[in-house]
Amino acid sequence: MISRRLLIKNTAAAASLIALPVTWSAVALAQQKLPRRPIAGGGDALPVIGLGNSNAFRQNDVPGSTALIKLFHGHGGAYIDCSGESRFVVAGVASSLGVGNELFLGTYFSNEDEPAMRENVQRLLEITGKKQLDLVHSYPEFAEPNWDMFLKWKDEGLTKYIGVARHAERFYGSMMKMMETGTVDFLQVNYSPLETAADQQVLPMALDKGVAVTINRPFINGEYFSRVRGHELPGWAADFDCDSWAQFSLKFILSNPAVTCVLTETANPKHALDNIGAGFGRLPDAATRQRMVQYLQDL
Ligand SMILES: NC(=O)c1ccc[n+]([C@@H]2O[C@H](COP(=O)([O-])OP(=O)(O)OC[C@H]3O[C@@H](n4cnc5c(N)ncnc54)[C@H](OP(=O)(O)O)[C@@H]3O)[C@@H](O)[C@H]2O)c1
Fold first, then answer.
1. How far is residue 40's CA from residue 260's CA, in Å, rounded to a whole number?
2. What is the pLDDT of residues 209-233, one digit of tens each?
3. Which of 55, 61, 216 for mutating ligand 1's site (highest number of atoms within 8 Å of CB)?
4. Average per-residue pLDDT in the chain?
5. Mutate to test the pocket of ligand 1, among 221, 244, 273 (most ligand atoms within 8 A of CB)
6. Nearest-CA neighbor of 23 among 250, 282, 289?
7. pTM of the model
8. Domains identified in the chain and CATH numbers
């Protein structure tokens, strides 16, 4: 890993050559892979920025998905969150890029019957060349039929991790009950500077119980950008190496110690690069986190 001082020196040199503003994260991005955080109890580590279930995957846009996955993997990205048919698009593209085995795939099941779900997992393994799936999620409302089956799949080695995933506060109670059982490896919840409820109970509980955490809705499915549009980033965002409004939210999320990886949904490679940039540089401290929430509320 190269030192920040060297990066800044290189930045200055590069900037004088190409006469363009070069930021800390842009330089770090060009030279380093995304930092990783350990998955508690699993012996693995995940890059801090993940990819959500992009429209490119959902629309079976193979060139778009290829550009996205290539860029993401090239910067050290691994976690891709996908469900339904789009998981096969991701698997197919990853396989044709020769990185099927290197990605960390998280997928979902709701209330199909077991043979149909198994067939889906087997198909994913065949396409990617993986020996076992990385992560299967249940929505909490389907945990009753799914969870025993997931535990069995984990025993058999069909999946390495099992998790529970939802995107709204009304599900936190049932997700916490599931974490009480001590069998949840991954929790996925919504969290951002405009949706902070998870930091009251559900994230502290995950941290306490050693459950890995992925975050959904970092941009409230795009609504965040409508709120900040037309507003300048505050000057103090530079104190934590933040170059954009997207990074403002992502760095807030990553500065919560319970968070392992944040899932960012985009079909636009420029946006993906911006989001990846949030994985580098400093993060806001506790006082700055409060200031960030207040700043957004006052816009
Ligand atoms: N388990 C669950 O119940 C659940 C529920 C919701 C979500 N999720 C997961 O979480 C992922 C993310 O959550 P989300 O769906 O709410 O999406 P999100 O990541 O909060 O927001 C996506 C929106 O932000 C835009 N965007 C992304 N990066 C940007 C950037 N750097 N600059 C400007 N615009 C940007 C995207 O547009 P462009 O495409 O134009 O960039 C898109 O409109 C999902 O994809 C899914 O995998 C899970």
1. 9
2. 999 999 999 999 999 999 999 999 9
3. 216
4. 90
5. 221
6. 282
7. 0.91
8. 1-32 (no CATH), 34-298 (3.20.20.100)
